[in-house]
Amino acid sequence: MKQVEVNFDGLVGPTHNYAGLSFGNVASLNNANAKSSPKQAAKQGLLKMKALHDLGMTQGVLAPQARPDIDTLRRLGFTGSDANVLEQASKRAPEVFLACCSASSMWTANAATVSPSADTHDGKVHFTPANLTNKFHRSLEPEVTGRILQSTFKNDKYFQHHVHLPDNEHFGDEGAANHTRLCSEYGRAGVEIFVYGRHAFDVSKPAPTVFPARQTLEASQAIARLHGLDDDTTVFIQQNPDVIDQGVFHNDVISVGNQNVLFYHQQAFFDTQNALDEIQRKFGDEKVHFVRVDTEAVTVQEAIKTYLFNTQIITLPSGEMAIIAPTDCEESDSVSKYLSNLITQDTPIKHVHYFDVKQSMRNGGGPACLRLRVAMTEQELGAVNQNTLIDDANFAKLNSWVDKHYRDELGDDDLRDPQLLIESRTALDELTQILNLGSVYPFQR
Questions:
Q1: Which of 128, 173, 262, 442 has a CB 3.0–4.6 Å from the CB of 257, allowing a cystine?
Q2: Residues of the chain with pLDDT > 70: what percent?
Q3: Which entry of 250, 265, 289, 405 is annotated as an active-site residue?
Q4: How many structural domains does the chain have?
Q5: Pairing of strands 125-129, 112-115
Q6: β-bridge pairing 261-265 and 289-293
Q7: Is 162 annotated as catalytic?
Q8: 174, 192, 218, 380: which is the annotated catalytic residue?
Q9: Does pLDDT of 113 surpass 90?
């Protein structure tokens, strides 16, 4: 049975801004309070989606969150009209206000963890939205994320949706940013790899001391249970605490996998050799290509700066693999040299394509952050909300929508403008009609 892996990219929202909200994310902190360009950011994302479509990939889009989050601000004691709520919050609790304006939902690698039907006991594709409890601004997302996923994958014959894990740091879950899957073919049962930063209930275990470990082992184990995964095809690996303290806040900043390739940095994991041995043992007789990048070739800091590992590895229709990298990788001497050499080596990776996603990079996310991978059969793909799949017509329609509704530039002062809230809601209301999502946003209910 034919099966494909579809990348569903997050559409950048009309209030895209840089607030420096993510402690532990170096790029986010370094660009705090800089002016952003929502229109440019959305168009950069759409261009990447269209380019992958043109390469022969099946490409989808996921809607953004509605921001500023007026409902949360009201829950926190700000009252009156929407304009009054914005004014009060921005003056009396500016940090809270900026958190409720977060643009972070664009990084849909954090939206959920997905297990394809080939891996699950009931033969359905399983989705669990991430609770994102480590960051207040991201913890506001799961409920609406769940609605968007249910409206995108709405056929319960093929898709199983779970409620996000309990909103507690013991079950901190960051979604697919700490999860990858290896397989011989997308339609065959694979090995699902969960990378965690710490043990929640055993504080004697190694853990980072500078930056927080956002994913717990217990959360990863819970997801595996919910999705009906077998122990003999599931691997739990601890991320190297030292590399988290260097600014690697998610595993997808230091490692990425696709089919029979695991591309990782020398310092990525805590007990690397045992982890790789377990992956190969559970993968079976076919060889896994463990592509290791040594520190002497690319330092951790350069990998973070360029997001070498926050690239996408895709399998082209030809069967060869390609890396989808930000232009920041091309602009780095050590990284571009490494990638140029990599595609000549004995691995399935034979191409590198560079894309300008600087608006996303400046806020702390690269190409891999922007997409949620969903492997599906032809029947499952046919059951997806077809309005959310990118083709020439949808690409043109979404570009026109961005041109109509998005501002060219946005600063902190603009976020308290009541007119921006009206503009954003008008845009998102129209988007739900374009994508046939129904009433997924609180303001629509």
A1: 262
A2: 96
A3: 250
A4: 1
A5: antiparallel
A6: parallel
A7: no
A8: 174
A9: yes
369 catalytic? Reply is: yes
Give yes or no for a contact between 12 and 42, defined as CB atoms under 8 angstroms apart.
Answer: yes
In the Cβ-directed half-sphere of 127, how many Cα atoms lie within 13 Å?
A: 29
Of these residues, 100, 183, 329, 369, which one is catalytic? Answer: 369
Question: Is 75 within the bounds of a domain?
Answer: no
**Positive or negative: CA dihedral 332, 338, 342, 344:** positive
Does residue 384 belong to any structural domain of this protein?
A: yes
pLDDT at residue 30 greater than cutoff 90: no
Burial readout 163-198 (b: 16 or more C-beta within 10 A, e: otherwise): ebbeeeeebbbbbbbbbbbbbeebbebbbbbbbbbb
Task: Give the strand order in the sheet containing 112-115.
Answer: 112-115, 125-129, 159-161
Is residue 379 over pLDDT 90? yes
> Residues 188, 212: contact at Cβ < 8 Å?
no
Summarize the confidence of residues 8-29 as an average pLDDT. Answer: 71
- Give pTM, 2 decimals: 0.95
What does each C-alpha distance from 148 to 117, 152, 407 come to in angstroms?
Answer: 20, 6, 24
CATH number at residue 161: 3.75.10.20
Question: Cβ contacts of residue 304 below 8 Å, gap of 6+?
Answer: 26, 27, 246, 247, 248, 253
pLDDT tens-digit profile of 321-358?
999 999 999 999 999 999 999 999 999 999 999 998 87
Domain around 217: 3-67+102-444
Give the three-class secondary structure for 179.
strand
- Residue 290 has which token pair? 């463990």
* Among candidate residues 208, 264, 197, 266, the one with its CA nearest the CA of residue 236: 197
How many alpha carbons fall within 13 Å on the CB side of residue 122? 14
Give a yes or no: residue 83 inside a domain.
no
Q: Is the pLDDT of residue 26 over 90?
A: no
Q: Active site includes 183? A: no
Q: What is the largest CA-CA distance in the chain?
A: 65
Q: What would the two tokens of residue 361 be? A: 């990079």
